[in-house]
Design goal:
mainly alpha; 3-stranded antiparallel β-sheet; 10% strand
């Protein structure tokens, strides 16, 4: 319920986004997608019934490990996420909100994709710098989400970019240089070179 003095327009926009997200998630059924069993609007607020999941966001899991993910862990993460996105893309242009904090790792090690973005695309502000200590969705967003343009529409490719950016972060501990900065001319170190550095620092981590 909106508090006295709060921005009513912003509150109601957030309320509608919550209901839209719940409506979309209620349509999907995949083990790597957040489930919504029921949702409704009442008392000036909105509610959703979801299963209880025990675990942590991927950002917290990787931070607790204190080392990059190896190839086996990356493959175990990628396969379920790509399967979940295939389900999303069968009904929506894109998920639109993928980052380490929107990937929840269950206690059994299985990922669950959370926080469905607005179906029309959510424009994210761009900030300078990125890192494993404070990952943000804007650090993993494709150019078409940072700087919307009629010639750069959102689509499944937008989510694939975000997933690849998350994998880059999981390997190196840093998100890639954000898309808007690269479009402006800032260079990005090739991941293959960064991975070699990671393996030199962490002999137990390997990539083929």
């Amino acid at each position: 319920r909106i508090k006295p003095g709060a921005d009513a327009a912003r509150y109601h926009a957030g309320l509608q986004h919550f209901l839209e997200e719940a409506k979309q998630l209620a349509r999907f059924e995949h083990p790597a997608l957040a489930r919504v069993f029921s949702f409704w609007e009442e008392n000036g607020s909105a509610y959703a019934v979801m299963p209880y999941l025990k675990g942590q966001p991927l950002a917290e899991v990787v931070k607790a490990w204190a080392q990059p993910l190896g190839e086996p862990e990356l493959r175990a993460l990628l396969s379920p996420l790509l399967g979940a996105l295939a389900v999303v893309h069968s009904a929506l242009p894109c998920h639109g909100h993928i980052g380490p904090d929107s990937i929840f790792m269950r206690a059994d090690g299985q990922p669950v994709l959370m926080n469905l973005g607005r179906t029309s695309g959510e424009v994210l502000p761009v900030r300078e710098g990125a890192g494993a200590s404070a990952p943000s969705p804007m650090d993993f967003a494709p150019l078409e989400q940072c700087k919307p343009d009629a010639h750069l529409p959102l689509g499944p490719w937008s989510d694939l970019y975000a997933v690849a950016a998350v994998m880059h972060w999981a390997i190196t501990g840093q998100a890639p240089v954000n898309a808007a900065a690269r479009a402006a001319g800032q260079t990005q170190r090739p991941l293959a070179q960064a991975a070699l550095s990671v393996q030199a620092q962490h002999p137990g981590v390997s990539y083929s």
